[in-house]
Amino acid sequence: MSALQKTPLLEVQHLTMRFGGLVAIDDVSFAANNREITAIIGPNGAGKTTLFNCLTGFYKPTVGCLKLTRDNEDYLLERMPGHDITKHARVARTFQNIRLFSRMTVLENLLVAQHNKLQRASAFTLAGLLGLPAYKHVEQSAVDLARFWLDRINLTARADFEAGNLPYGDQRRLEIARAMCTEPALLCLDEPAAGLNPRESAALNDLLLDIREEIGIGILLIEHDMSVVMRISDHVVVLDYGRKIADGEPEAVRNDPEVIKAYLGEEDTEELPDVIKQDVEAAAKEEN
Amino acid sequence: MEYFVQQLINGLTLGSIYGLIAIGYTMVYGIIGMINFAHGDIYMIGAFVGIIGFIVMAILGITWIPLALLLVLVMAIVFTSVYGWTVERIAYRPLRGSQRLAPLISALGMSIFLQNYVQLLQGARVKPMQPMISGGLQLMDGGVGGFTVGMSYMQIIIILLTVVLMAAFTLLITKTALGRMQRACEQDKLMAALVGVNVDRTISLAFVMGAALAAVAGVMVTLYYGVIDFYIGFLAGLKAFTAAVLGGIGSIAGAMLGGLAIGLIEALWSAYFSVEYKDVAAFSILILVLIFRPSGFLGKPEIEKV
């Protein structure tokens, strides 16, 4: 991970997910690298969240292979139970809605995420109760990591606030910080910018770019806000009705006729094309 | 006045025991949203392990009471915890994810099983136990013909032990990694699993911790009343459950508060009205509280998540 070049992290091969007769994902293949933000976009119902659910073990794919490479070791995610994916393959995710532990403090939210580490060191709390030095050391390192992320998201001053009382944008970033405290190799974010105002959205972008640059992990990002996608992603995968219709650099994807058709639709669709078109155009303007 | 103080002391002692049992109900409810109907019987098992423990101590020749008491408490906690863990494994875990009613029924079955199991193994007669700790302090002397207020050493031990256990338990839940794990699972099990918490183990631990506290309550009751039988878990469980609901189910401080409230209501009602109707009084108060404050003393009102 210390090397600066982009190394392959996740390989999705021929992923298919069927629910009865409904094909949610149909033979999708793509790859995501370390030190890259891979955006997954597509109209509603394209299968983006289903893809995440396959990655984190909520669904077992009908067909296909999800290979994650971390520290020169391969993990086949489709064969692992959910908690092993977090623990061994180190995939972290957030949801479309905020799911913080809202009645715990900000700091506690970040410490819970380091639970495995602490629990092992504390010999299931016994050593922790006795206050053995080895445990103290691990506990200190957990608090240090939490502080590092608190600094990053500017919440150090509010470390002892209840998480549920933070403003919306802070809660979003706290969720990402919590996911980062599990020390993931792959971070999956499901619409992190939804409902953020422009300033909060910009702060989120900075946070994600920092994670990419400094921590060097790979990020998978589901996002509807095209300006966010165009600004921060290195690689865009477009899904439509469960199929992959484009894959490449943001610039190339934006001009892809298939993508334009999927988003703007043909004449009889009811997809609110104007709104999305404006988004795309606004993003294009900002880029130029 | 003296009579009132005396009943207050008696009520506090009884309330401490209810409180210790109630914590088990409230913890399990907090984490899986279900009532552990076998918990009263877990407490009964604790009492029996206690009485067996004292016999073992006598056989081993350990007669120094503080040491014997400590060893018996440890023994009761260990054995009863194993029972608590087993109840979760057999009656709850296989049914997790099925409909809500299923584990409820299997827990009732577990409760009936435990009662009959102890009845078969230990017999249906009440088990007496010689008072081990006698004597006490005289707090108020009523003079000739007056009422003398006393507090037995046993009552002091029960109240002190409860206070210490409550403090330790509160620290465990609020300050340690284990407590954070419990609280995280209570709020969002799926998310807790995603950040690496072993949810199954956390649920098991909630049962084990509840059982450990119930074991202490069981041993204390054995010493305090001197008689136990296989059926004591039923009413004590019902009272402790009432205490947990009264205090606000899911809240640990609430369980303690509810326990004390039930204990005091019973003691004071018996003192001034009639002993026969003390259970009626306790449950009537529960009904009144639930009508005017459905989430209990310290419970948070249920907010529907959107």
- For the record, give the distance between the C-alpha atoms at the N and C termini of chain B, rounded to a whole number: 54 Å
Strand order, main sheet of chain B: write it out.
Answer: 1-4
Number of domains of chain B: 1
Say how many strands of chain B there are: 4
pLDDT averaged over residues of chain B: 87
Give the percentage of residues in beta strands of chain B. under 5%
Taking the sheet with the most strands of chain A, its summary is: 6 strands, mixed
CATH class of the largest domain in chain A: Alpha Beta
> Please, what is the oligomeric state?
heterodimer
Number of strands of chain A: 10
Spell out the helices and strands of chain B N to C.
HHHHEEEHHHHEHHH
The CATH topology of chain B is given as ABC transporter involved in vitamin B12 uptake, BtuC
Write the CATH fold name of the largest domain in chain A.
Rossmann fold
Per CATH, which architecture of chain B?
Answer: Orthogonal Bundle
How far apart are the termini of chain A?
Answer: 33 Å
CATH architecture of the largest domain in chain A: 3-Layer(aba) Sandwich
Shape of chain A: globular
How many helices of chain B? The count is 11
Structural class of chain B: mainly alpha
CATH superfamily label of the largest domain in chain A:
P-loop containing nucleotide triphosphate hydrolases
Helix content of chain B: over 70%
What does this structure look like?
The complex is a heterodimer of chains A (288) and B (306). In chain A, α3 (106-112) runs parallel beside α7 (168-181), α6 runs antiparallel to α7 and α9 (226-232) packs parallel to α12. Helices cover 42% and strands 23% of the residues of chain A. Chain A is an alpha/beta fold. Chain A starts with 7 loop residues before the first strand and ends with a helix. In chain A, β1 and β2 form a beta hairpin. Chain A is globular. The mean pLDDT of chain A is 82. The longest helix of chain A is centred in the middle third of the chain and has 20 residues, at 133-152. Chain A has two domains: 1-90 and 185-288, P-loop containing nucleotide triphosphate hydrolases (Rossmann fold, 3-Layer(aba) Sandwich), CATH 3.40.50.300; 99-182, no CATH class. In chain A, the strands form two sheets. Chain A has a six-stranded mixed sheet with strand order 6-7-8-3-9-10, with helices on both faces. In chain A, strands 2-1-4-5 form a four-stranded antiparallel sheet, with helices on one face. In chain B, 48% of the residues are buried. A two-stranded antiparallel ribbon of chain B has the order 1-4. In chain B, α1 (2-32) packs antiparallel against α10 (252-272) and α5 runs antiparallel to α8. In chain B, 73% of the residues lie in helices and 4% in strands. Chain B is mainly α. Chain B is globular, with a radius of gyration of 20 Å. Chain B has a single domain (2-142, 161-289), classed as Orthogonal Bundle (ABC transporter involved in vitamin B12 uptake, BtuC). Chain B has eleven helices and four strands; from the N terminus they run ααααβββααααβααα. At the A-B interface, α2, α3, α4 and α7 of A face α6 and α7 of B.
